[in-house]
Amino acid sequence: MAEPFRIGDRVRASRVDPPHHTRLPRYARGAAGTVTALLGSHPLPDRRSRRLAADPEQVYAVAFTAGELFGEGDHTVTIDLWQSYLQPAAAEPSGAAAATGDGQ
Amino acid sequence: MGRINDVGGMQGFPAVWREQDEPPFHADWEAHVFGINSALISRGVYNLDEFRDAVERIPAQEYLAASYYERWLRAITMLLAERGIVTEEDLADG
Amino acid sequence: MSADHTGPAAPVAARVRRLEGMLEERGLLDAELLDRALGEFLARASPANGARVVARAWLDEGFRERLLADANAVLPELGLSMGGGLQEQQLKVVQNTEDSHNVIVCTLCSCYPLALLGPSPTWYKSEAYRSRVVRDPRSVLREFGFELEPGVAISVWDASAETRYMVLPRRPSGTEDLGEPELAALVTRNGLIGVAPV
What we know:
The complex is a heterotrimer of chains A (104), B (94) and C (198).
Chain A: E1 10-13, E2 32-43, H1 45-48, E3 56-65, H2 66-70, E4 76-82, E5 86-88, H3 95-100
Antiparallel strand pairs in A: 1-2, 1-5, 2-3, 3-4
Chain B: H1 28-42, H2 48-56, H3 60-65, H4 68-82, H5 88-91
Helix pairs in contact in B: 1-4, 2-4
Chain C: H1 10-25, H2 31-44, H3 47-59, H4 61-69, H5 71-74, E1 90-95, E2 100-105, H6 114-117, H7 127-132, H8 137-143, E3 153-158, E4 163-168, H9 180-184, H10 189-193
Parallel strand pairs in C: 1-4, 2-3
Helix pairs in contact in C: 3-4
């Protein structure tokens, strides 16, 4: 897992399409957004739904622009996401980052 | 993978249909499904995440055709059957 | 609640009764407790609670600020809470302003501040709402008869984790002389979800 994020950090949602329950909606996969709030720590549903041990991890409110999510629209969508779903994203995408569309 | 419940942004659904002055539950059985689920989760038969997972595992066409509480009932019976607590035969008509 | 024992729902009603009976036989639920808990839930939780919170916030600036900072902490001031369910739900109130409007959804299922507002409307749980409001909220609002001015920014909140969201609508103009109960009577469930102005 990445280091804990702070409000204002740019983050990118995982691209993974998991073969199990998750609370990362498909429409946010791979999208970059901004952390706007810290929402407490809770066990990861991906693990809880399979009765796997799950320590609480930080949940973040992450604001995405409609453009980032759908390529059009002028609204924002804030999605509440667990630490495990997120990686840091470059604030200003470099050529390389834009080409792969990915953090590490 | 890309489960049927994960519909945010999906195209093809119609205008939002809404009922005027709808009651909290449309029938006793809906309220009882709600209550049964609360009771079973409180007792630890399964947890809320397992319940959501079960709803999502309803076969896609069945999921879309079912009403909200029909999905709940389907998920509850699925979880109980998987735990050997009740079987489909137990619940069959007649 | 209507008990439909003869219509198309009859088979499913019988199925639920059979299930409940079996679970009671196995000691996994108590039918009387279930009925009582349901009754208590429906008596306690309703949109009127949200309306009272909104009316108080309109009248009391300090309450409004505390509500926006930590909603769970201020609900007891009105004798309300997000508890009584499986666990206390975390509530976040988001306020509409002259240039920003908020709409709530749970695209993945139907998460909603049940403990405060009672069961959500069927449309909120529908694929139509859940799929479309994150992609084109303005069109969805239009279907509800709500034409939002072009300059107003829309924030959609997808309740995908443990937090439950409620909208604090803008106080309508011309209501300066109204008291708290009259103001509360103006607030609708649709306004608390964000598909209506109030």
